[in-house]
Amino acid sequence: MKHLIFTFDQKDQATKEHSDKELHFKQKGSLWQIELKKLLGEKETYVCPLYDNDSGKCGVYEYRPFECRTWPFYVMR
Question: What pLDDT, on a 0 to 100 scale, did the predictor assign at position 7?
């Protein structure tokens, strides 16, 4: 998984609350996709740009995307 899917409301809230972060959303139909950042020196390890490494917490936990709610289970679409 290299992308997370957000609804418009989730994207809007994340953009407002995390205006200090460089977030790149791409529209896919009525949903929005955010690209995960590849960890340096890692082959297939990606991290969400909304994850706070210092606190070890998700920056959008209250309204996190579906993939995050169902992690570690992978749901094929």
Answer: 93
